[in-house]
Amino acid sequence: MATDNQVPGSVGTSASLSLRLGQTIFSSASLLFMSLGVEFYSYTSFCYLVTIMGLVIPWSFTMAIVDGYSVLVKCPIRQPGVLLIIVVGDWVLSILTLAAACSTASVVDLLLRAENPYCPPKFCSRYQISAAMAFLTWFLSMASSLFNLWLLPSL
Fold first, then answer.
1. Tens-of-pLDDT digits for all 155 residues of the chain?
2. CB distance 85 to 13 below 8 Å
3. Do 50 and 73 touch, CB atoms closer than 8 A?
4. Mutual orientation of helices 121-151 and 14-35 as an angle, nearest 10°?
5. Residue from 14, 6, 9, 53 nearest 142 by CA
6. Rounded (10°) angle between helices 80-113 and 44-73
7. Structure pTM?
8. What is the Cα Rg of the chain in Å?
9. Which secondary structure element, helix H or strand E, spans residue 114, and what is its range?
10. From the CB of residue 152, how many other CB atoms can be counted at a distance below 10 Å?
């Protein structure tokens, strides 16, 4: 049942479900490109990206399940306390994801532009793809947090 204050993209809507699934897919892709067959542990920023993506995946997947259930039963979440926790969690993970994506991208750029390249092209291209996936994760995460923040004052 749709309410008058339902914001597209806020928790419990099909748009939010799409955003959460996108976050889960892009963060999983970022983690896979960074960690499979690559020695990411040599650089702190790469370890940081792996750690943050390891936090984003369960958060986004859990929120996707909540959104899917809310859409299925047609009962969006409108408790201010629960929404506040979701908004704070989204903001924190969004900022951490942006920091991880930026640090990874800057280290990859440094590795590629050094006088003596420090990583083979195969590895650096995987690092670049991982950073790009992290930026896409951040974009979707920020969109989710803004939509939910927009909904919070109307409750």
1. 444 567 788 888 999 999 999 999 999 999 999 988 777 777 899 999 999 999 999 999 999 999 999 999 988 787 888 889 999 999 999 999 999 999 999 998 888 887 776 777 778 888 899 999 999 999 999 999 999 888 777 66
2. no
3. no
4. 160
5. 9
6. 150
7. 0.89
8. 18
9. none
10. 14
Contact (Cβ atoms closer than 8 angstroms) between residue 64 and residue 9 = no
How is residue 135 written in tokens?
């930026």
Q: Which amino acid is at 9?
A: G
Tokens read off for 122:
């195969």
- In angstroms, rounded to a whole number, what is the distance separating the alpha carbons of residues 3 and 15? 15
Q: Confirm if 11 and 104 have CB atoms less than 8 A apart.
A: no
Please report, as a single letter, which amino acid is at residue 76. Answer: P
Token pair belonging to 46:
């790469």
